[in-house]
Amino acid sequence: MNQNHREAMADVRDMYMAHSALRREFSLLPQLVRDVTPGDATRAEVVGAHAEMLCHILHLHHEGEDLLLWPRLLERGGAEAAAIVPTMEAQHHAIEDAHAAVVALLPQWRRTARGGEQLADALEQLRAALIEHMALEESEILPLAQRHVTAREWMQLGEHGMSKSPKKQLPLAFGLAMYEGDPEVVKAVLAHAPLPARLLMPIIAPRLFASHAKRVHGTATPPRIGATVR
After folding, report:
1. Which residues, 6 or more positions from 31, have their beta carbon under 8 angstroms from its beta carbon?
2. Which CDD domains match (predicted)?
């Protein structure tokens, strides 16, 4: 690489951890919606709030890549990046369209618990687009990022998401990722956090996720789906 050759390069293992969480939760969502009894607005609100949080996390995750990752890869990655980044961008557009369809249907379903089948179908579309995209990103983009993006630049992706997320939501969001995360990767991610977060997050985040999962999934240990690449 050019002027950055002396810098530490990106440790992309946190992306696999994030993908595992997205893969798991978006794969479970369509059936969660279908299982809500029509008219049971109390349950629809629980599942709907969970879906809204996931959609927000996904939107910020992809927004960060659009702003901070694709331009750097295109600038530095030569023919390899030029061959794959446009596909990534096109997939993001398709995912954003599917995401918009879900977001449009969600509020009314949360209030009334009516129209769940239409929402579940929209979530299936989103899940399929997302799974395809993450698999390609893991096989093609992450190896490029390891060679062409510095560790400092890579951290900006996570910082982008955190800066635009409600602060109260961050521990739960981290718990979502930690659930299938490698403890070593969790430790590496937290290494740059302030000391209180480094000490407390490994305790608080899993507890918050267990409580949340019990409310949403009916169990503190929902099925693990995992990453396609380790």
Report:
1. 120
2. Hr-like (cd12108)
> Distance of alpha carbon 146 from its chain centroid, rounded?
19
Strand partners, 150: 9
Mean of pLDDT values over 7-11 = 94
Q: Nearest 5 degrees, angle CA 24-CA 26-CA 31?
A: 100
Domain ranges of the chain: 13-165
User: 13-165 falls under which CATH superfamily?
Assistant: nmb1532 protein domain like (1.20.120.520)
Measured CA to CA in angstroms, residue 162 lies from 146, 156, 168, 205 at distances of 22, 10, 11, 15
**3-class SS of residue 62:** helix
Contact in structure between 68 and 38 (CB atoms under 8 Å): no
Predicted local confidence at residue 112, as pLDDT: 97
Sign of the dihedral defined by the CA atoms of residues 31, 133, 63, 89, in that order: negative
Banded pLDDT at 5 (limits 50, 70, 90): low
Q: Following DSSP, what letter does each residue of 45-85 receive, concatenated? A: HHHHHHHHHHHHHHHHHHHHIIIIIHHHHHHHSHHHHHHHH
* Closest CA relative to residue 45, chosen from 120, 118, 113: 113
Closest CA to 12 of 132, 133, 134, 138: 138
pTM assigned to the model: 0.94
SS3 for 167-194 is HHHHHHHHHHHHCCCCHHHHHHHHCCCC
CA distance 161 to 201: 17
